[in-house]
Amino acid sequence: MNYKKIVFATNNKNKLAEIREMLAGTGVEVLSLADIGCHDDIPETAATLEGNALQKANYVYNKYATPCFADDTGLEVDALGGAPGVYSARYAGGEGHDSEANMAKLLAKLSGKSDRRARFRTVIALIEGGQEEPKLFEGIVTGEITADRRGGEGFGYDPIFRPDGHAETFAEMGHEMKNKISHRARAVAKLVEYLKQQAG
Question: Is 178 in contact with 159 (CB distance < 8 Å)?
């Protein structure tokens, strides 16, 4: 199958920019939902990251009949039983993605707790069409939640997540370093490897 163009089912401009940067030079052009004229509010009602990724990819593929992938990412905190997990983007409630409110709630929940271990987990679902079953690619990075916000780069929970083996939070290390080691980078690396094998 020719993977010159593939749709990334997201409205998150930060994620789109990250993915395009990671796929630069691979011969794969990543189209946004806007590029294909999709302005729908795609549902994310599954109880798992895998379910949400599949739900989004299926929605776009069924409507536009084009190869498509979607991702869902969750921050899983040990001391909170894996929360916020699938609800990471809307952890503080309300509409939209209020990163400041989400971080404030998480830091408040961890106040006084010594166990601050956490992991970011990204699941990518790829739908190629035809007889192919959907493919899932997972990326995980472990680390800990810092006591306060640090750094001005990145988005989401980046200012309070310090990955193992690094002194800086994701928000302190900048895009280039983050894109080498992040959960999304690891999931995308598996996706890219698969796409290259198919193209070859």
Answer: no
